[in-house]
Task: inverse folding
């Protein structure tokens, strides 16, 4: 779980939000049928086209993920290793910047 109190780009006001994070395994056969593009909202209300990318879990610590969970994912022994319980530190304007 991640507790977020940050100012983000776009017209959405900055209320407190809780992000629940789920882990799942997506087979290559399922990935082949999933979307490869998404539309991201820009601060001025327009949209830009984003590309969906798949990454090995061991390499996600350097990615600009939100919530910032890359380090915890990359430290797993295997992609299916049990995660007993963890919470991310609260995300605020002081420790997170949108890029």
Result:
């Amino acid at each position: 779980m991640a507790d977020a109190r940050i100012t983000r780009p776009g017209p959405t006001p900055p209320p407190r939000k809780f992000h629940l994070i789920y882990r799942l395994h997506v087979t290559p056969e399922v990935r082949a049928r999933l979307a490869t593009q998404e539309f991201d909202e820009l601060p001025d209300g327009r949209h830009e086209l984003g590309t969906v990318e798949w990454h090995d879990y061991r390499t996600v610590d350097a990615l600009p993920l939100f919530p910032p969970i890359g380090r915890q994912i990359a430290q797993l022994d295997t992609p299916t290793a049990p995660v007993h319980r963890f919470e991310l530190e609260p995300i605020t304007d002081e420790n997170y910047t949108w890029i």
Observations:
- The chain has one domain: 2-91.
- The longest helix spans residues 70-74.
